[in-house]
Amino acid sequence: MNARYAILLFSLCLLTIGVRGDVNGGSTCAGCTLVVSLAQQIGEMNNEPIIEAMQRLCGFLPSSYQPACKMFVTEVEPVVQRLIDEKLFTPDVACHALTLCSVDPDQKQCHLYPLPAGTGLATSLSRVLSSGKAREARARKMQKLGSDICDYFPVLKEICQFVYERVDDHDPVMDADVDRFSVIETLRGTHFRGRDCDDTDPSIHPGAKPIDGDRQRDSNCNGIYGVDPKSGSPYEELLCNSTTQLGMILLGDSAGAHFHIPENWVSAPDISLGAFEILPQVLADEFDWPYLSAMTGYKNSSLVKWPTDSTYYKFWQMDHCNHRDYQNLGVNGARSSAMNSTIQYSMARDQKLDHPALVVYSLIGNDVCNGHADTIAHMTTPEVMRANFHSTLQFLDTRLPPGSHVIATGVADGRILFNTLHDHIHPIGKLRSDVTYEQLYDYLDCLQISPCTGWMSSNETLRNLTSERAADLSKAIEAEVHAYKSKNFDVHFVRFDIQDVMKKWVKEGGKAEDLIEPVDGFHPSQLANFLMAQQFWEDFEGIYPQGIVKRNPHNDQIRQLFGDQGGY
Fold first, then answer.
1. CA–CA separation, 207 and 297 (whole Å)
2. 254 tagged catalytic
3. Which phi and psi (to 5°) does residue 357 adopt?
4. How much is the pTM?
5. Taking burial as the number of CB atoms within 10 A of a residue's CB, which of 10, 173, 258, 348 is the most buried?
């Protein structure tokens, strides 16, 4: 899923007014409609006018967000009240009246809810915006209200530009020694990559081979250093030399980064004071939760219902010397062309100075997923997919140390999304049971902001064609796996099929919808990540029957001497 799509939808309208989106207002229109609907439902629950409900909603936000939110409410109050007085209010009509939604030339009218009985959209709007000039004036007001903070405060321009550039490179924003490892959690920091234990020295970072046995300092950040007083030998040699250390690196998309929007942000019955306390962190992590993901997860969280398991975590369980050696280079919206041109270059690995690594190349949807009306024309072809993957393999051959491994997954079959969810109620409709996933999918499709027009569609023929292309792309990846001759790693193909995981879960008594993110109706849920981690491990054991990593007999001693090894 595109990061802008997520931020525009769920950071509330005060953060989105300055960016209109694709057609008919795009993401800004959707964000406005969902937020106004949420406020309307909160008003119904508390028996209060919608403007008071909007103010209540502002009070749920972190304190630093509240003034701008209340300013927005003050600005929109006259329009909303006029619609209510005229008995024309619906979330869609309100957002059109606020000029955050529109009907662009040659585009059909988009609305999530039924329009006012007896009047069309145009008639409703004419009672609030009587002329084109009135509409233009309202649009200028909303645009000014949503001005970019970086432009509004010139002193911040340099800082903003620095952040934008680093985020576009997918490198940690805070990284003093530029070794691509950080000491802060967010902004592509330790949530995505192991914590740097010395951000002033680029030779010190997770995954590095120990310098002088780490007698004096911890050069690979695994928390193991110093000298055994009895033998005089470095602990790193005594405790880690009996096994081959292996890092875990994901080259992936939003599914691999574990995109997640808390359900209580959009469900009126579940929203509460404090629900948005984590909003700054979620924004800084691009709505990704890689520390809970199937590939690089390393801790549990009380914010989600299910525990964490991952390939990295299993590496650490097998050998504590692998502590902190993970990199999650999952990027929202990533497809093979972006991986080939930018994302892969943010990987940190030195062929001579670092330990080998397992790289998982997993782009499970975006090469067939897009929001275009002519979606098939914008899908990657099998020939281009193979060429892009070939180029990535060539790059990895210049970076990965000898003894590394590369595993590529196929593209998913996303028909399970519509087939599983289409008649279920979306969280935004939970209070009144009035919005199904099919209705939401069609609404986003109308605005051309759907994360996947091909699969999130009521058009069965289109869904089948999308899956056919996905299967062709998987075959292209598999063919390149068999053809590529590597110098520094072995390369294997794993068929990605979440349907297998889903079938096992249902057989155990679970529900298929448990494995799909409830808010976006597109990504694997936390439970799915947990189950996928187990499935991936089974796949690895099939590929490497002798074990991709060996169990370290010194793990107990490492825990006794170094505790949590410095944590994360």
1. 17
2. yes
3. -145, 155
4. 0.92
5. 258
